[in-house]
Amino acid sequence: VSAVSPEDIAQAAARLRPLVRRTPVLFLRPGELGVDFAVTVKLEYLQHTGSFKARGAMNSVLTAPAGTSRVVAASGGNHGAAVAWAAHRAGLPATVFVPSFSPRAKQDLIRAFGAELRLVDGYYADALTASLELAATTGALHVDAYDTVATVAGQASLGVELAEQIPAGEPVVVACGGGGLFAGVTLALAGRNPVVAAEPHTAPTLLSALAAGGPVAVEVSGLARDSLGARRVGEIAYAVAREQHSRVLAVSDEQIEQAVALLWDRVRISAEPGGATGLAAVLAHPDEFGGDAVTVVVSGANSDARSTPPR
Ligand SMILES: Cc1ncc(COP(=O)(O)O)c(C=O)c1O
Questions:
Q1: Cα 37 to averaged position of ligand 1 atoms, centre (Å)
Q2: Strands, sheet with 141-142, edge to edge from the N-terminal-most edge strand
Q3: pTM recorded for the entire structure
Q4: Is residue 33 very low, low, confident or very high in pLDDT (cuts 50, 70, 90)?
């Protein structure tokens, strides 16, 4: 796996600027969001397709090899919706594999953007196997959800925006599944803002990789498995976490549920569990931030309307 360079990130940000939304930030005073310090929320669920995944998917489609005539992807749902959207914008047919527990809201989005949806028994990892097989037999481009330069550089454009929106030095907390968002934002903000990864106890991909000395397969379950349920963290995210000595904070499903509820109660944001996991880490580990302001990314809001996904 090759490293993602500052040029990759600058080019992706320039390429994406006319095509993705520059999502706003909401500044909340101490006490407004469950902790006694200020919290800035990056409202990334307002992105096209309802999650940041639009960035990496569009960058991947825009940099596809010449002659690409079809794309395939595997996803818990959000990356699939993003690939369906990007392919539709580029006039390419798309096939998306998702685990059958993927919420209806995500499945409906994938179909709404005109992609062929295929349900797979099992987890994201099983959908990935199916996507790679179809790519190998048809020559279609497999748009990876988190472990390619194009995807990570695309997600980094969120960090490029944050550099214009928040003060230097302020920690930024993002949810980590396969780690594309974490890696991209960390690289975009390196030397300016520390980036902290948040992951569920039920899907500890980055913590396990750091403990084992490399990405390892872990059991995944829990509330956020349709977004943070990659079985292993990407090689790129692992390398970035090692190089940058990144902090990783784990949260329980109950803490994720509390973060989802707090976002609704206080600011009427209807985040999905994975989208609220960054805030959950701040609520669960306030002492990690020494009382200073933090930024959290609310990365997605595609859940079955106000209901709880199955465990
Ligand atoms: C809403 C949301 N947040 C965070 C993530 C984690 O992204 P990554 O796999 O790049 O770590 C996902 C992945 O699907 C997601 O859908």
A1: 26
A2: 116-120, 94-99, 71-74, 141-142
A3: 0.96
A4: very high
